[in-house]
Please model this.
Amino acid sequence: MLRSDAVTKGIQRSPNRAMLRAVGFGDSDFGKPILGIANGYSTITPCNVGLNDLAKRAEEAARQAGGMPQMFGTITVSDGISMGTEGMKYSLVSREVIADAIETACNGQSMDGVLAVGGCDKNMPGAMLAMARMNIPSVFVYGGTIKPGKLGGCDLTVVSAFEAVGQLTSGKIDEEQLTAVEKNACPGAGSCGGMFTANTMSAAIETIGLSLPYSSTMAAEDEEKADSAARSAEVLVEAVKANIRPLDLLTKEAFENAISVIMAVGGSTNAVLHLLAIARTAGVDLSIDDFERIRQRVPVICDLKPSGRYVTVDLHNAGGIPQVMKLLLDAGLLHGDCRTVEGKSLEELLADVPSEPPSGQDVIRPLSNPLYAKGHLAILKGNLASEGSVAKISGVKTPVLTGPARVFESEEDCLAAILDKKIKAGDVVVVRNEGPVGGPGMREMLAPTSAIVGQGLGDKVALITDGRFSGGTYGLVVGHVAPEAAVGGTIGLVQEGDSITVDADQLLLQLNVDEAELDRRRAGWSKPEPRYRNGILGKYARLVSSSSRGATTDHAD
Model:
């Protein structure tokens, strides 16, 4: 029995069938599974501009495999375009909108399965949230990574343009060079090219088993990406027949595998937020502390941008995520019995993958020669973050810094100070009221961090925030500080000049002010007025949970 029988079977459903006949159903089609094709296509961003071709290819393959595909649209926000503006407040919110849209369409139409096609950062976790909520057979198709831009023999990504702004203001380059970077950074379709958030989440979904092997690192414009989309549709039809559902795959062990891979490839801090949200929706007991536990035993073995040398197409050419997983599996760092949407175990899936990375490349290193002996996403706690915070410490030469607080109430104020050269070596920059509630929407801080790096202060300045960082961020940066300022967190009590310690070695984020003084400040604190009362941002601020719990809107804390 199919779920779609609710709209296709029985004389009382004659009006329903009449509507379906108008969109192409014939007599023989009413017994076939109805498959949603959630299409994130838009011309808003290069991440999503190629998705329609993939969705159409998947639609045709689903039909040939015996399904009845029904395509519908989802939205996206381009993080790269909205970065540094009020529009960035809608980015994390879009994750919830995407999840709600897919759930609404699939459940409203009694669909039997869903294939989601997405590109930009929030498309992937948004689709995963919907899949976990509905628990109908599901496959995710990633739109693919962008190929690197080229300038003077160097590979460029969009982060190169953000960093060039800081280089210009510090006199390292002129406007002609800035324009050259701008014109060459993004050469075509695909998501941002380093191991930034989109490629991090695509890798996580492949590891979990809801995307096909190798698909997470394919270039958007290569033919193999379209072929993979078609095969994904065929796999979805098979999953409906075998009744393989997301909650069969979204186990604690599968999330641990995803975290291990993210550590190994040097992935984005945003993976912490998104995996916590997906796990919470799936009913899996995953906490922020699990990331630190796994970090302690999994090294970084991939030399990828933003802090490394290579881009995601280089990782793909070196063997992709299956090669990374095989190295971890052989080292006992992966649960090989976890299942995939194809019905195979990871161990079976990786059986033919070499146990050593290919020779003649140094994108993927053997575990005996890692880039870093431990993972790069450290969970820091202390009186500034009693619920935890996330530090990305790859490429950081000075993981411990104690310095005076430079306090800003918004990203814009912080960026202006950096560009005016008011931030000095040894400062601890605090950007607050940018959290899930206070922002609202937890903006990413790629513009300030890139400007700091561009000015040569990346190893000399710490930046902490209750907002987020882009997957393109690196340096001594600490995000997701919880509790956030807007709900009474200690970050809201910091005053200009206070001593703050950021210690990635001791996993400490500490405001060096005595408890009596903090109690006095706390007594004088009052909750700030909401920046938005109406519309989606007002609704989001009223519903959203703490970042330490994934910043979801469909669970009460």
